[in-house]
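G.,

No rush on this.
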Amino acid sequence: MTEHSSPSVRIVRPSEFDSGTAQTPGSERRGAIAPRLGVETTMWGGLFEVRPGARTGIHHHGEQQTIAYVLSGVCEIRWGDRGEFVATATAGDFIHVPAWLPHMEINRSPSESFHWVVVRSTATPIVVNLPDETWPSAGP
């Protein structure tokens, strides 16, 4: 009889989250599920926060598909070749961001951060930050 190792569940506690992951100005990403943290996976999972009155820079995630679940707060999302599309997501909503899509997140609240749980389709996060001049008006 041959011994084999069985896969196991991995619990990653907040004290283990990795803020050394790829970042976009105006936000903070903290990795929780990633090979970098010793988790064997083909995906990436973590938390995303934008503080009150802040916005991210314009960015995309290359070949990665992104799924986010809004834990708290209200987020305005702009996207498109010129930032011409806008939608609002609130706590309880799911968001899908297709690969290569330029976008930004805006927090118009003067007092409350918004928080997301994010899952990406590859194990290493891809963040391509674009210049503000990418869109005619990138401000909130």
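When you get to it, here's the other one too:
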Amino acid sequence: MSPAGAPARRWPAGWFGAVMWTLGGLLLAFIVLPIVRLAATSPVASLRQAATTAAIRDATLLSLQAAAITAAIATVFGVPLAWLLARGTFRGRGLIQAVVDLPLVVPHTVAGIALLFLLGHTGWVGGPAGHLGISFYGTQLGIIAAMLFVSVPFAVNSARVAFEAIDPRLEQAARSLGATPWHTFRRVTLPLGLRGVLTGAVLVYARSISEFGAVVIIAYYPATAPVQIYNLFLQSGLTQSAAAAVVLLIVTLSTFLVFRTLASGRLLTRINRAYG
């Protein structure tokens, strides 16, 4: 039902609507058909066998865990930067925004090599960290670092757009009533922009769990789910890897839809009630 005073939405009619539906439908088909074809190649027995294989199960759990940690880190560090970009008028703002977007255009294998130079055993960060017993190469820390590099723009940009949509006068009103910058951010800015922040976290999670290029360079083992599927493809061919791919697809789509639903509805409502 349309909100009061808002015009009812109707399907576009005429030749224009037909053209728009045709073009949009072709794109949707391009997305859906490969997934449907992949699912159709794997019988239930193959899926059950793949799901109970220890290597596939461990790789999937590793991907889920690392992606969740990556989403949390990207949100904690990305939200402050997003707020600065949304509210700041400082010199160099455009350059910082370009740096944030840089991982979107860097080939992921290149990103993995660059991270290896930084976080490897002789890297600027990896070398000193090694003396403290911290290793990124071939560890879950390296996997998280690779996932974070390629996915963090989604957290920053999503939160930035949400903060930019907030009327600055609301924050100014809170400040005029004696609220500190932190209190204003916590009680006004963050609740109003929370949907964008949560959406960014979900997108980071989704992007991280599917990452292959950067991860395989810095941490080939322990194998994440995409790396394990690639190994199966090289060792056993298309049939065996297809079953594992469908299992990963089911798990990732399920978790993504759950997080997406929470971010857009129930979780957001509960958090807003807590703020109230």
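Residues 54-87 form the longest helix (34 residues). The chain is about 80% helix and 0% strand.

Enjoy the weekend,
O.
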